[in-house]
Amino acid sequence: ETGVTQSPTHLIKTRGQQVTLRCSSQSGHNTVSWYQQALGQGPQFIFQYYREEENGRGNFPPRFSGLQFPNYSSELNVNALELDDSALYLCASSLRAGMAANYGYTFGSGTRLTVV
Amino acid sequence: AQRVTQPEKLLSVFKGAPVELKCNYSYSGSPELFWYVQYSRQRLQLLLRHISRESIKGFTADLNKGETSFHLKKPFAQEEDSAMYYCALKMGGGNKLTFGTGTQLKVEL
Predict the structure, then answer these.
(1) In the list A30, A93, B37, B72, which could disulfide-bond B21, CB 3.0-4.6 Å?
(2) Is residue A97 within 8 angstroms of chain B, CB to CB?
(3) Which of A28, A60, A77 is nearest to B96 (CA)?
(4) Is A102 in contact with B101 (Cβ distance < 8 A)?
(5) Cβ–Cβ of B102/A42 closer than 8 Å?
(6) Contact in structure between B72 and B20 (CB atoms under 8 Å)
(7) Nearby residues of A20 by Cβ (< 8 Å), 6 or more positions away
(8) What is the pLDDT along chain A (116 residues), one digit of tens a residue?
(9) CA of B4 to nearest chain A CA: how many angstroms apart?
């Protein structure tokens, strides 16, 4: 059984650029959630995808968007990067959307994004 | 809006001493509470859930709706308990977790 894998592990981008982060969910998991973790803070919910559709969104602007593919892998896209977007981005997969948090997410190691 | 407060950024205890990591939440509905743990160089992982009323690695947590608290406790701390602990809240029927800012537990010999 494989866990959640994220790529890349580290990334440096310039303000105004666009970035795509990738996530492969744990085998058998059909729901993927993305979290942003700023330094010294807890993870903040960005959005969740289930069956290739967005299934809930946190307080993030539209320039944060995502995709889920038929194999349940997912992408997080951020346009017009700002300095405050610098953070650790975590992907988490789970078995069922409605029960996602109940049984616990499986988290990836994250992608460290630095915007300069 | 829902909120999770972990008042201590760092908690240092000696090995064998009792541990209590505090967590308070604000939410008017029926909450579901969780503790997540992140050991050094490892991923964030679920430690325990209030709905299962379980004890994991000697840790327990009781949901106190009157005090809106979900403190994590262990009677005798061990060196391997040193880690970052996050309390998290899920609104009933929702699909997102709201995390606290975390407490770094350091168990000293």
Answers:
(1) B72
(2) yes
(3) A60
(4) no
(5) yes
(6) yes
(7) A75, A76, A77
(8) 468 999 999 999 999 999 999 999 988 888 899 999 999 999 999 999 988 999 889 999 999 999 999 989 999 999 999 999 999 999 999 876 555 455 678 899 999 999 99
(9) 10
